[in-house]
Amino acid sequence: MYPMGSIPNRHASGQRTLWAQRCWKTRRGLRYTVRMNTQPSEQALRRQYEDTLVITGTGVMAFGVWSLAKTVVVAVLRMDLLMWEVFGREVSGKEALLFFFVLGVMLLIDLVIRLRLGLAARAEGHGKSGQKTSLVLATLLAIPSLASILFSLFSFITGSHSPFELVDMVVTVAIELTSFVLLVEMIMAVVRLRALRASSQPMGSEGHGNE
């Protein structure tokens, strides 16, 4: 027998234990819910990659137009210096004409590739099926862009240049670096978006078959 004041209240103790367990489970549930809510959903990731393709596709096309315009301006304003840098000597009119013809063809090919790649990226960003050649074209453009950046940096470190040449080199490196980053972001967005679509497609096809 316990004194009246010292009888343990087992019912109250059990209620406190049950309440503590419920609070602990509630806190775990809240933490799990917050953690799940902070993770981007599949639809949000898909929209993010599609927006990236639209932006990078537009940028790639703009850089193609800029590259053509810059080369034409340099060829017109600094024709003699350009010929000397390429051939190391004075050239005849036929040689200069042949050089500019080859240069024009190369620039047009580069522009066509960039326009095709940019339009394909924008189309895929708007929900259309992607072209298999997009990754190949983006890689083919990214490799010479990276080579141009490395060559310009090597020339900047090893050579002596006038202030005008330094400014031109810095601008060229900045633009080429931006173009390279756009291409890399495009490649990553294409790979991730296609992987996301491939992972979600079987679920949709099974649901359609069950209907």
Explain what this protein looks like in three dimensions.
The protein has 211 residues and is an all-alpha fold. α2 packs antiparallel against α4 (93-125), α4 (93-125) packs across α5 and α5 packs antiparallel against α6 (163-210). It has helices spanning 10-38, 42-77, 79-87, 93-125, 134-158, 163-210. The chain has six helices and no strands. The protein has one domain.
SSE arrangement:
Layout: H1 10-38, H2 42-77, H3 79-87, H4 93-125, H5 134-158, H6 163-210
Helix pairs in contact: 2-4, 2-6, 4-5, 5-6
Helix segment tally = 6
Distance separating the two termini = 70 Å
Radius of gyration: 31 Å
| Gross geometry | elongated
The chain-level structural class is mainly alpha
- Count of separate structural domains: 1
Fraction of residues in β-strands:
under 5%
Helix-strand sequence: HHHHHH
**Mean pLDDT value:** 77
